[in-house]
Amino acid sequence: MIIALDGSSVDGEAYTDVVNLARHAPGWLDGAVSAWSTYGLALFAALMAYGWWRARRAGAAASVTALAVPFVVVAAFGVDAALKLLVREDRPCRSLRVATLEACPAPGDWSFPSNHAAVAAAAAVALIFVSRRLGAVAAVAACAMAASRLWVGAHYPHDVVAGVLVGALVAWLAMSALRRRAETAALRLTATRLRPLLVAPS
To answer: Which residues contact 53 (CB under 8 A, 6 or more apart)?
Structure first.
């Protein structure tokens, strides 16, 4: 079943208000937000790598948890992408015909939910299971990523909210399930060639 949602009827007015605000904002602010919106996901990759590096010194089970984070993020992206194909909501820049900071994506590049928001939220929630500090940093960055996607005109507010919820839920379910099996998985994997990934050299 294809829903074909018209997002402009949900919160199109709020979207237009934000886009108009962005158009009248200082150039340095728009430039910074646009850069973060485009390249900010690299920070989450760096946090994942750092979390794994630290986890190796905490034990094999901690390493298994850290190594699972990127796979969980990919899973959240997959769920989010499947929802996009189901809902098929046009980008707001096409429905409302407004000028945006980010070039309007081609037709068929659906808007709901936001992939960027889902990936960022999934990374943040998954990293909380690795380190609360890293998770807190990632959570702040995820909020900034979600807001930036609205600021540059790529998504409606409900798109980014839904993306955050999808990513957070998938990550929480997956990491909660993994936590109960981390010790068992660690015992099995340390007996394989993957041991260097799990335990730091002494």
So the answer is: none
CA 127, 82, 149 angle in degrees (round to 5)? 60
E strands of the chain, at which residues? none
Q: What is the pLDDT of residues 107-118, one digit of tens each?
A: 888 889 999 999
CB burial readout 20-34, b (16+ within 10 A) else e: eebeeeeeeebeebb
Contact 53, 67 (CB under 8 A): no
Q: How far apart are CA 117 and CA 127, in angstroms?
A: 15
Nearest to 62 by CA among 135, 136, 130, 133: 130
- HSE-CB at 73 with a 13 A cutoff on CA atoms is 25
Instruction: Name, in order, each residue with C-beta under 8 angstroms of 191's C-beta and a sequence gap of 6 or more.
Output: none
Q: What is the pLDDT of residues 166-189, one digit of tens each?
A: 999 999 999 999 888 877 776 677
Most distant CA atoms of the chain, gap in Å: 60
83 contact partners, CB below 8 Å, separation of at least 6: 112, 113, 162, 166
* Sign, Cα dihedral of 81, 46, 103, 26: positive
CB contact at 8 A, 131 and 54: yes
Q: Which amino acid does the sequence have at 10? A: V
Q: What is the mean pLDDT of residues 51-69?
A: 85
Peptide bond preceding 70 in cis form (omega within 30 of 0): no
How far is residue 37 from each of residues 31, 54, 175, measured CA to CA in Å? Answer: 10, 28, 26
